[in-house]
Amino acid sequence: MNLRLGYLYRLSPVAVFGSFAVGWANGAFWTLGPIFAERETGNVAMVAIFMSATVVAGAVGQLPLGRLSDRFDRRLVIMIGSLLSALAGVGHFFAAKYMEAGIVPCAIFFGLFALPLYALCASHLNDQVEEDGYVEAASGLLLLYAAGAVVGPLVASMLMNRYSANVLFLFTAGVHMCLVIFALTRMCLKSADPSDDKIAFTDSLVSTATTANLDLVDDETETRFAQPEGVRVH
């Protein structure tokens, strides 16, 4: 299977750019978030609380944002989620500097909106592809996310070493604002697709899987195993 990234970009620029941008931001968070929490609090237990709060919030936020994207332009939901993620990043910066107790609430706010962005991008691209293109779409977005997740931590770590640990979330805020500007530009250039052309967010998550559940026992085989020839069941 050939990965046609240019083709995927023509289908959905926001999904392709968004996946790469989210890779930058989330890759930096997953790699350097624990370092940020440990340096700012000096408490190993706080690192676990900080990361757990973000992960749980991300799991909670995925479905409501997905449902909203089913009803409205997915690009709008991606843009709003990115904007709120940027605000959470700025909140992290000031909380770490002036009010340590605000780090966990900011982590929850960040997780609610930043972590579901990749799934929203994938759903937006799936709205544009044919049924036989889901695997290519999922593979392309995953490749872009992985590329961003390699570069993002490198850039963020250099900034943290040069300045301070709390610069991490100014970095993620900057990346999310780039996605906000890009999504807003695309919304001005192209109107939203009809809602009838969308697939449900939850169905989109299933369709992005690269494997399928196969029932290797057909009805005839099941009957033969259940009742072997020559054996009468009473």
Q: Can you describe what's shown?
A:
The protein is mainly alpha-helical and 234 residues long. It has one domain (12-226): MFS general substrate transporter like domains (Growth Hormone, Chain: A). It is 76% helix and 0% strand. Helix 2 (13-41) runs parallel beside helix 7 (134-162), helix 4 (74-98) runs antiparallel to helix 5 and helix 6 runs antiparallel to helix 7 (134-162). The chain is elongated, with a radius of gyration of 22 Å. It starts with a helix and ends in an 8-residue tail after the last helix. The model is unreliable at 207-234 (pLDDT under 50).
Order of helices and strands: HHHHHHHHHH
From the N-terminal CA to the C-terminal CA, the straight-line distance is: 53 Å
Percent strand equals under 5%
Based on the coordinates given, report the CATH architecture.
Up-down Bundle
Counting helices, strands and paired strands, the structural category is mainly alpha
What is the CATH class name?
A: Mainly Alpha
- CATH topology: the name is Growth Hormone, Chain: A
Radius of gyration: 22 Å
Oligomer state equals single chain
Classified in CATH, the superfamily is: MFS general substrate transporter like domains
- Kindly give the count of domains: 1
Q: How helix-rich are the residues, as a percent range?
A: over 70%
- Count every beta strand, where a strand is a DSSP E run of 2 or more residues: 0
Average pLDDT reading:
80
Helix count, per DSSP? 10
- Uncertain spans: 207-234
Largest sheet: none
Question: Quick one: overall form?
Answer: elongated
